[in-house]
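in:
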C-alpha cells in the first residue's frame, strides 16, 4: 500500500509485481474458466449487437477494482463496465486522485467467439498522465508492461518499436467498420492510398502491443475511451514510438481530442498517418 507521502513512482518501484499478480489472478479466476465455455445467459449486449459484455468482463473488473483500490489507498478505479453503469464516474480520470483505468476483457467479441485475440488492460494514471501499464494476453500467457521513463517489456524482454523498413507499405490497423460512423469511415478512407495497407483492428490493446513490437507500423482510431488506449499508448511511447491526433498534438486520455488519432512506431510514421487523415498528403 502507498504510505505517508509516497509518490506514484515510489509506489511503482515497490508494487509493480503486486499489480501484475492481480492482473494474472483476475484472468485465471474470472476470465479463462469462461473462455470457450460461455453460456448464452453469460453474454449480454450494451449499445448494440457489436457491443458485448460477458460475466467474465464484469467479474474480472470487480476483482481488479477491489484489489487495486486496496493496493493504493486513495486511488479510484475507472472500469469500462462500471462506467457503462454510471457514466459520470468517467470524470475521475481528470481528478486529483490516482486512477486505475481498467478494461477487463479488451476484445470481448473475440473472447465470445472463442478466439485468442483478447487481453486485460490496466493503467495507473494521475492528473491525466499514464505512469504505468499492464497488457495481459491470457490465452497465450503474454504480459507486456511499461513504466514511464523505464521502458516497455514483453515477458521481461525490452521492446523497441524502431522505424518501418524503407520502401515497404505501412501496415496500419484502423477502427473496425462495425464501430464507426459514416463520417469516421470517410476519414479513414484517406488511408487507402498507395504505400499504405490499412486493415480493421482487433483488440486495441493487442494492436498497441504489435506497434510496440514493430510488427505493426501504426494505428488509426476514431474513439476516445481511455480503457482501450491508456495502457497501449504508454507501451508504444516507452518502446520508442509516439502518438498524435489529427491536429498534430499528443492524444489526451482525459478527452477532447481531434479524431481520428494515431499511435506509431516512430515520429515520421505518425506524422505521415496524421497528414493523410487530415487530407494534407
Amino acid at each position: 500500500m502507498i504510505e505517508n507521502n509516497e509518490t506514484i513512482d515510489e509506489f511503482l518501484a515497490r508494487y509493480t509485481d503486486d499489480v501484475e499478480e492481480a492482473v494474472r489472478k483476475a484472468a485465471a479466476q474470472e476470465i479463462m474458466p469462461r473462455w470457450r465455455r460461455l453460456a448464452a445467459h453469460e453474454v449480454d449486449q450494451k449499445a448494440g449487437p457489436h457491443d458485448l459484455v460477458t460475466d467474465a468482463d464484469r467479474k474480472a473488473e470487480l476483482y481488479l477494482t477491489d484489489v487495486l483500490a486496496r493496493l493504493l489507498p486513495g486511488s479510484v478505479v475507472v472500469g469500462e463496465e462500471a462506467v457503462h453503469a454510471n457514466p459520470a464516474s468517467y470524470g475521475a480520470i481528470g481528478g486529483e486522485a490516482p486512477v486505475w483505468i481498467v478494461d477487463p476483457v479488451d476484445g470481448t467479441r473475440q473472447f465470445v467467439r472463442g478466439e485468442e485475440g483478447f487481453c486485460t488492460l490496466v493503467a495507473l494514471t494521475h492528473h491525466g498522465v499514464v505512469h504505468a501499464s499492464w497488457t495481459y494476453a491470457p490465452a497465450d500467457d503474454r504480459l507486456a508492461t511499461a513504466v514511464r521513463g523505464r521502458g516497455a517489456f514483453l515477458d521481461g524482454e525490452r521492446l523497441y518499436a524502431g522505424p518501418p523498413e524503407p520502401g515497404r507499405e505501412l501496415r496500419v490497423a484502423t477502427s473496425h467498420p462495425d464501430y464507426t460512423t459514416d463520417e469516421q469511415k470517410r476519414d479513414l478512407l484517406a488511408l487507402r492510398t498507395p504505400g499504405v495497407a490499412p486493415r480493421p483492428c482487433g483488440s486495441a490493446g493487442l494492436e498497441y502491443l504489435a506497434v510496440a513490437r514493430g510488427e505493426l507500423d501504426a494505428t488509426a482510431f476514431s474513439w476516445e475511451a481511455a480503457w482501450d488506449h491508456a495502457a497501449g499508448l504508454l507501451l508504444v511511447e516507452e518502446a520508442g514510438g509516439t502518438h498524435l491526433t489529427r491536429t498534430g498534438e499528443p492524444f489526451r486520455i482525459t478527452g477532447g481530442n481531434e479524431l481520428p488519432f494515431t499511435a506509431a512506431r516512430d515520429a515520421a510514421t505518425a506524422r505521415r498517418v496524421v497528414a493523410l487523415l487530415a487530407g494534407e498528403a
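note: The chain has a mean pLDDT of 93.
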